[in-house]
Amino acid sequence: MRKLFTDIKAIHGIEDNTKSLLKGAEMSRVVTIHDAWLLTENGNFANWGSMQDSDLPKADEIISLHGLEVLPGLVDSHTHCIFAQLRSGEWEMRLKGATYEEIAAAGGGILNSAYKLRIMDEEWLYEQSLWRVKRMIEHGSTTIEIKSGYGLSIESELKMLRIGRRIEKNVKATIKTTFLGAHAVPPEFKGRQDDYVAHIINDMLPAVCAEGLADHMDVFCDRGFFTPEQTLLLLEAAAKYGLPAKIHANELGITGGVQVAAKAGAWSADHLEHIGNEEIECLRNSEVMPVGLPGTSYFLDIPYAPARTIIDAGLPFALASDFNPGSSPVCNLQMVWSLGCSRMKMLPTEAFNAITLNAARSLRLEKSIGSIAAGKQADFWITETHNAIQSVPYFFGVNHAKTVYLSANQA
Ligand SMILES: [Zn+2]
């Protein structure tokens, strides 16, 4: 099936399909063509060109986009969108002065989410989570990673990951799942953290892999959560099952997370609010994609990952939502794009590349998504907003996506 989209005011994000990521100064590059047509074939981008061309390509269907702009589908490489309910009560506690760590110590935080998720009916949890994924897609996200980590027991972690796979089957977006049993230590293992790590390695991980429920392994490597040594043990165990690593690192302090990510060959190290020269050097000598989560910094009022320092050091950088009920209740990557600019001093072009091609790279999906390139999945969205690369993050808090086109619907 060939579909020809015509009368496009601008197509943004055209990138050579051999380019796996953008780093340093190249991150400010976004290729745009104006007054264009776009051809898809069997669900993939096939070609594009100028409306002034004498012959437009032949197609089975011709769709005029009436002067709108086209952007590639956004890639949300870090979410916790399967959860029982929002935690707005804790948010109010924080507004009254309690810290995230104090709330966690008082039985709130991740453990509160775990308690509520364990007792929640699976069908209802699925419906709630599916609703959220659909909201993400409406905002232009066409690839979404989903983590477990609010179960913290074999049964409940499996429940979460099965829901993740069920969502994958029932939406047309690309969905990837991540096992995050090491998100926090559950109450039944309180004071026995090493025993919980052994339980994950010996019991949970084999059960998750036996059902093929996860695409990656994640660990919350930070102060008060899991140590670098425990993290390495967990990631090495996951590697034996062929699960690549993506980890939570350096959110609460300089805690060795980046170094562990590099040592374990992790695909990404996410958060990075607290990093110094040593971490930058470590990233430079690795294939780890640094990922910033500005929604968390905004919502918790903590420092932002030093995007400017990272990019100016010649490194790549990606952004994701960290969508979760405790520290980042945002499912809109356009808003994350805006925060990348206004709070992290990234250029609109840099932040755009951070939620498209570089985010795709953090999932090692850059060969099939993340830019408009021949042969990649025809995931894209259209907007009435003119000069979209600059205007979408500028005019924040509005959903600029008029229609989201998913590859699976184009085939
Ligand atoms: Zn997270």
Could you characterize the architecture of this molecule?
The protein has an 8-stranded parallel β-sheet with strand order 6-7-8-9-10-11-12-13. Strands 1, 2, 3, 4, 5, 14 and 15 form a 7-stranded mixed β-sheet that branches. Helix 4 (122-138) crosses helix 5 (154-170), helix 7 packs parallel to helix 8 (257-263) and helix 12 (333-342) crosses helix 13 (348-354). With 411 residues, it is α/β, with parallel strands linked by helices. It is globular, with a radius of gyration of 21 Å. The mean pLDDT is 96. The protein contains 16 helices and 15 strands. It folds into 2 domains: 2-72 and 371-410, Urease, subunit C, domain 1; 75-362, Alpha-Beta Barrel (TIM Barrel), CATH 3.20.20. Helix 8 (257-263) links the parallel strand 10 (246-249) and strand 11. Helices cover 37% and strands 21% of the residues. The structure holds zinc ion (ZN). Residues 78, 80, 248, 322 line the site of zinc ion.
How would you characterize the largest beta sheet? 8 strands, parallel
Given as residue ranges, the uncertain stretches (5+ residues, pLDDT < 50) are none
Average pLDDT level: 96
Q: Count helical runs.
A: 16
Give the DSSP E fraction (strand runs of 2 or more residues). 15-25%
Which strands sit side by side, in order, in the main sheet?
6-7-8-9-10-11-12-13
Second CATH tier, the architecture of the largest domain: Alpha-Beta Barrel
Number of domains: 2
SS-based class: alpha/beta
Shape: globular
Quote the CATH topology of the largest domain.
Answer: TIM Barrel
Radius of gyration computed on alpha carbons = 21 Å
Distance between the termini: 6 Å
The H-level CATH homologous superfamily of the largest domain, spelled out, is Metal-dependent hydrolases
Provide the list of bound ligands, each named once: zinc ion
What's the number of extended β-strand segments?
Answer: 15
Helix content: 25-40%
CATH class of the largest domain: Alpha Beta
